[in-house]
Amino acid sequence: MQKDNNNIAQIYFDNANVIVLALDAEAKVLLINEKGCEVLGCKQKEVIGKHWFSNFLPSDYCLQYQRCFEKIMSGELDTFRDEENPILTKQGEERIISWHNSYFKDERGNIIGTLSCGQDVTGYRQAEKKLRKSEILIQTLINSLPFDVFAIDLDGCYLMQNTACKKNWGDIIDKRPNEVAPNKRILKIWEDNNIKAFGGEVVEGEECFECNGRKKYIYNIVSPLYDKGSVIGIIGVNIDITDLKNAEVMLKGQKIDLEKKNIALQEIIAQIEIEKSKIKENIAINVSEFLMPTLKRMKIKGVSKKHVEFFESQLKSMTSAFGRNITKKELKLTPREIEVCDMIKNGLASKEIANLLHISLQTVEKHRGTIRKKLGISGKGINLTTYLQKN
To answer: What is this structure's pTM?
Structure first.
């Protein structure tokens, strides 16, 4: 029967999913099960009889845990019953083991060794480390945001706030919205929004309230927080849009002022057009009613009919844009060339121009060629008279 019990104990010992380790009074390995060998990457014969701390712990931890062992051996078990430390595998890899320690005694009651059960928690600790790192990164990111960020739990209490939120509202952790809201109207809005968010909605909208004697505008967004499909809280942000709203009001005022000025400018332009029309009409009437009759009655000896007709044509075109167009600086026409242009426009032939200006026909033709070049129509088959009349 005793033999059967020993066999059962051995089976449990070898098949336990935790490390089972027994050390003698000198910290040498008496027993280690298959799980322990598996974690170490060793065979039992490579472990049994070896000094545990100098062979299977990283050198930085040897002295520390050797002293813990000595304390247990002296009977101080309660302090060191549960410990966690790294061990060193055959391949040089560190594994973190969570130990539950005890000791065993001889027949006279003397402590002669330790018995420890260990769980490999390396994966858990690495995951925890990554999680802590992620939490730090997320918290740093949230704290760097220039607007309020907060979270409320299912009990309706604030459980998180970022730096901006604390600066704007003070420490609100464990408080409720009714302890924070600036007035009853805002509290009602918050409570309605929170109820909707706890119901699974994402709620957003603008809020306005008095703060330190001035209007403050907040854009508020509240969203549910889920865990495995269930709402476990809500998270919200308050974005201060006061400057934006003030800018909108200012721009609206400027727009109204601009529209008024635009209307006034249009009225001024319309009045200028009316005045311009009156000036053109007055010139046309004066030329038609006074100058033209006088010109027709003129009988100047030596003045040809063509001269009179040319003078009439010039008077009629006094209000046209031809003079302004032909005297543009970029054309670089000389005063004589401008004079020739005017005569060509009014239909005078080269010979007539030569007679009027007392210059040779060859000189007129030379002027015509130069004018065509400066106007950019040389060699393009464009009639100079037609071009000048259109422009």
So the answer is: 0.49
pLDDT mean for each 10 residues of the chain (391 residues): 48 74 96 95 95 94 92 92 94 95 94 95 93 91 92 95 93 94 90 94 88 82 93 93 86 87 88 80 61 55 57 58 77 88 87 89 92 89 87 75
Q: How far apart are the first and last CA of the chain?
A: 129
Residue type, 277: S
Q: What is the dihedral of CA 306, 311, 315, 320, to 10 degrees?
A: 70
Q: Which two tokens stand for residue 364?
A: 């007129």
| Cβ 295 vs Cβ 311: under 8 Å | yes
**Token digits of residue 358:** 């007392």
Give the residue from 19, 24, 74, 89 showing the smallest Cα distance to 51.
24
**H helices within 105-183, ranges in order?**
122-144, 163-169
Q: How far apart are CA 306 and CA 313, in angstroms?
A: 10
Name the token pair of 262.
């635009």
**What is the token pair recorded at 187?**
């509290």
